[in-house]
Amino acid sequence: MKNELKILGISTQNPGSSTGQHWFSGGKLFESFSPVDGKRIALVTGSSRKDYEQVVNSATDAFRTWRLIPAPKRGEIIRQLGDRLRQLKPALGKLVSYEMGKSYQEGMGEVQEMIDICDFALGLSRQLYGNTIHSERPGHRMYEQYHPLGIVGIITAFNFPVAVWAWNIALALVCGNTVIWKPSEKTPLCAIACQKLLAEILYRNGLPEGISSLVIGDKEIGEWLSADVRIGLISATGSTRMGKEVAVTVAQRLGKTLLELGGNNAIIVTPEADLKMTVIGAVFGAVGTAGQRCTSTRRLIIHESIYEKVKKLLTEAYDQLKIGNPLDTNNHVGPLIDKAAVNSYLDALDKIETQGGQLLIKGKVLEGDGYESGCYVQPVIAEVENHYDIVQHETFAPILYLIKYQGDISQAIDLQNGVAQGLSSAVMTNNLREAELFLSAAGSDCGIANVNIGTSGAEIGGAFGGEKDTGGGRESGSDAWKAYMRRQTNTINYSTDLPLAQGIKFDL
């Protein structure tokens, strides 16, 4: 890992001492521990209140310059970021895997998401379109245009320590905003690596360093950002609890939020499903990133006629899972992020049995050679009812709930929708009518609804986000860029008269 940090230009002795960083002078100390082996990677100094004020002032000043640069020129900066990420993909992917604990393949995939969104944003920089509207008044023209908001505050979670930042910063910068990023304090080196890459590109192009800034800290810094009237938009990714706190604080100042919160995602398996595809999608969705994706598959809603067969296939597949060092590509499942996550996992197992569920594959914390960090756990399969309290809540761990349904797919859809969250969903079926019903207004109530693929692994071309307790935000593709801008309606009078709308007369 020392070689990768060197390639990324990070010193573990003082990782915050690079050009353009204001956040390292006097805040709390944060230790970055790898869940892979339990070793401390680095000691990072967080941002003090003085540092925070300096960052906001710098971002405010930079916005005055950045907003006037033509959008295609702003896109050129994002193009350069994408090219640099292509060069450093193996090193950054390995750092993501080591600091967060996801498999090396997933770490590389996360960096590829960053590259993809840079490509998307580059094209978007020439397509920030508005509408032309016919006026009811002669000699008048109406149109709509979009302007940048100002400063965008980004709050990200540990499970995607670099990709979610890229989703936001690529669009926010192309739209003309400046950005302040508060990453998870559990993955600070990934954040420092990304910020350093972009800071160097801005420096080489003679642009203000305040266009992109980083503030490292805990919940307190998130509260500063949320309450700050100078921040035009808060884009926050994390738990529903955190999102509700952010939403209340920002709403009190009538600010804007983009919230990507919890998921409780289900796959419906109908009698006409391809079971081979079902098992692949369900297992990857449940154990990928050790169940720590917001789109992880939590529930498998299976028709009673095939329930026992699916259960058998799943348990056989779980017997083949290899758990261990995520940098070893032979392993399927890495560690949870830390001991707190392990405790949450163990607590969930107790509640499953207390509330009446049955553990088909019992969970445990793995011990012995290769598991010294204490963060490796056994992926679990449990038979439950959808109404159990533990099933209604998201547990960030590799726990898959099997739920039986009877009758037609409408009953399964009711179970699928019968939770507070509404992020991702899927149905496995070769029946066109079932598929179309699932995608209709009477179907899934989630922001993402898939047919014959799992709940995780969204592409950047579509808008990403969910409904209900997931927050309602949309990031990444489609027209998600509009969240980072303010809309303005313009009317131009090119006549020699001044007629009023609605035919009102006002003669002088």
From TrEMBL:
Keywords: NAD, Oxidoreductase. Its EC number is 1.2.1.3. Residues 28-489 form the Aldehyde dehydrogenase domain. Transmembrane segments: none annotated. The keyword Cytoplasm does not apply. Signal peptide: none annotated. It is an enzyme of class 1 (oxidoreductase). The active site is at E260. PANTHER family: ALPHA-AMINOADIPIC SEMIALDEHYDE DEHYDROGENASE. Belongs to the aldehyde dehydrogenase family. Homotetramer. This is aldehyde dehydrogenase (NAD(+)). It comes from Sphingobacterium thalpophilum.
